[in-house]
Design a protein that fits this description.
The chain is α/β, with parallel strands linked by helices and 262 residues long. The chain contains 12 helices and 10 strands. The strands form 2 sheets. A 6-stranded parallel beta sheet has the order 7-6-5-9-8-10, with helices on both faces.
Length: 262
């Protein structure tokens, strides 16, 4: 199980590691068919009795292990007593962009282009989930979706909304435009987010494009988007963390879209 901390092992097996009571509970509740193995210490299961019940309801057996054994399985230094092995379950871009039964297409999507930090990637998935986004797409050489830290940082949101991986940006954005969505690139050189809101731009179906933490988006990548938007800094901070900026952008769109249909 410890081998699943390595990307090569995850690619070969099609499995990934899930740690902690919150993430395991979300998997058992929303995607129980993905859980291959579930391990817990007796102490942890006594502490998280709700997980024991959810596992029973989902028909998933719990195998008891000692603290020492569980520590060898887990990726974290201080695991919380519960670890699971799950099947990977990437979604296709086509599924994310497909209109619903009423013929309504997606309204809000997050695209991660070469986002390398797993904590940022997982937090953006969580923010997209909270903002009611229709999906998240990892493009370019972004971090592996099933990296243990990405999974932990999403705090279970990875099981709530579709996430596609492996897209090439130019082809992806053609499909996004074909689905009737605008592409807004989050970039320091862009126009002010407040101004975009006042113009009514954020009410439209939108795919937000977020770039690499250090380099951002290249001029060529920005040219593929409809507009570049920046989150203004009103205080003295030198910059804003990518995941924080992404959360602001996604929520601004969510607010605008819901206000326009209220």
């Amino acid at each position: 199980m410890a081998k699943l901390a390595k990307r090569e092992a995850r690619s070969q097996t099609g499995l990934f590691l899930l740690e902690g009571p919150q993430a395991v509970a979300e998997a058992l509740t929303f995607r129980p068919q993905l859980v291959v193995e579930l391990y817990a210490t007796p102490t942890a299961l006594e502490r998280y009795t709700d997980i024991a019940q959810v596992a029973v309801d989902a028909g998933v057996d719990v195998e008891f292990v000692t603290e020492h054994v569980l520590e060898t399985m887990a990726d974290t230094v201080t695991p919380q007593g519960i670890v699971a092995v799950c099947h990977q379950f990437p979604t296709s871009i086509k599924d994310i962009l497909r209109p619903d039964h009423a013929g309504v297409g997606p309204k809000l999507i997050a695209i991660l282009e070469e986002v390398r930090d797993p904590g940022n990637a997982g937090t953006i998935i969580r923010a997209a989930d909270a903002a009611g986004a229709d999906g998240v797409i990892f493009s370019g050489r972004s971090v592996d979706l099933y990296n243990p830290k990405v999974v932990r940082s999403s705090t279970g949101s990875i099981f709530h909304l579709p996430v596609a991986v492996g897209a090439e940006l130019d082809t992806l954005l053609e499909k996004i435009h074909g689905a009737g969505m605008q592409v807004l690139a989050a970039d320091i050189k862009g126009e002010d987010l407040l101004g975009a809101r006042q113009k009514g731009l954020l009410e439209r179906p939108t795919a937000w494009l977020f770039g690499n933490e250090a380099r951002g988006l290249s001029d060529e990548q920005l040219a593929l988007a409809d507009r570049a938007i920046t989150v203004p800094i009103y205080g003295h901070a030198e910059s804003m963390n990518l995941a924080t900026a992404a959360s602001v952008c996604l929520y601004e769109s969510a607010f605008a879209q819901r206000s326009s249909t209220a």
